[in-house]
Write a structure and sequence with these properties.
There is one protein chain. The protein is α+β, with helices and mostly antiparallel strands. The chain has 4 domains: 23-84, no CATH class; 87-211, Tetrahydropterin Synthase, Chain A, CATH 3.30.479.30; 213-273; 286-299 and 312-340, no CATH class. It is 50% helix and 14% strand. Strands 3-2-5 form a 3-stranded antiparallel beta sheet. A hairpin with a 5-residue loop joins strand 7 and strand 8. It is rod-shaped and about 205 Å long. The protein starts with 6 loop residues before the first helix and ends in a 26-residue tail after the last helix.
Amino acid sequence: MATPPNPYASQSMSAGAKSFLRSSIITLAVLVMACVVGSASCTRVDPGHVGIRVKLAGSARGVQDAPIVSGWVFYNPITELVVEFPTSVQNIVWTKDAHEGSLNDESITFASNEGVTVNADVGLAFHIEATKAPRLYARFRQRDVSILAHGYMRNVVREAINETAAEMPVQQIYGVGKTRLLNESLRKVVERLSADGFVIDQLTFNSALRLPDNVVGAINRAMEATQNSIQAENRVRQIRAEAEQQVAAARGQAEAARQRASGEADALLIRARAEAQANEIIRLSMTSAVIQYRTLERWDGHLPVVNSGQLPMLTMDTAQILAMPEADRRARLAELLRADAPTVRPGSNAPGPNPSNDPPAAPAGP
């Protein structure tokens, strides 16, 4: 026989299930609320960024000086705020081209010291110094760095370029002075932005400088004239150098001819002196005996058909030939012979000067 169900036991089990379900719902709600609160009070600072803690309540409310490094950060979302700032290098371009940078024309226009307007596309590379990020946020209250770049930083760069360009002529800006313009402008930008935590890495012109067409034409003509002047000056220097070379060559040839003529004249003079000295020696060597010997040597042995009683050419008067006294003649001849005698080394068999005053033997021949 089946036992009838107990109505009291069924009611007791239903009450327990309801109590368990209620407890589970409450526990789940608490867990969900804890997760929501926990996720709201935790954030992550990505690499290449720095976190800035801002207290919204309490006696120390405001921007905290110590930056937060990358990683997970726990904070009270009710009384605190964490602002994330990038510290990696940012590249900003202010250009006229709508396909690069902003859709608007953000190119920078400046003027030379003559008042000529120049337009250029400018590029800037910078990053934020992590230790100065809280100060930067406290001053501008702006967490988007691109807004600061296209606003405050662009104004600083434009002012620096205008101040530098105002001291330079347009021809220098358009030519070799472009690098000087960039370097001097970069120095001023660094000087004005470094205190706020901006570290400037590079300042460049991203395009050719845009000038009025008439100014560009005038500059090109002036540069062409300068190049022509340089070429003409180089040609003049070349011609002058060639002329100096020709003059030097002519001087060398004239000096060579002068030396050659001088040598020939000296040779003639030496030869003339030698011949004169030889003639003098021969003249002083002539005695009556020598003359008669030479005469007999050349006589063919035939007497003339008609004569005056004397043998011809066997007797002659030498007084007309030798006009100087005999002693003087001998002394002079000895002197000439000593001057022409070769120097003989001791022990040599070569004949030396004639120690006597006798004249040398008469040479053979006429």
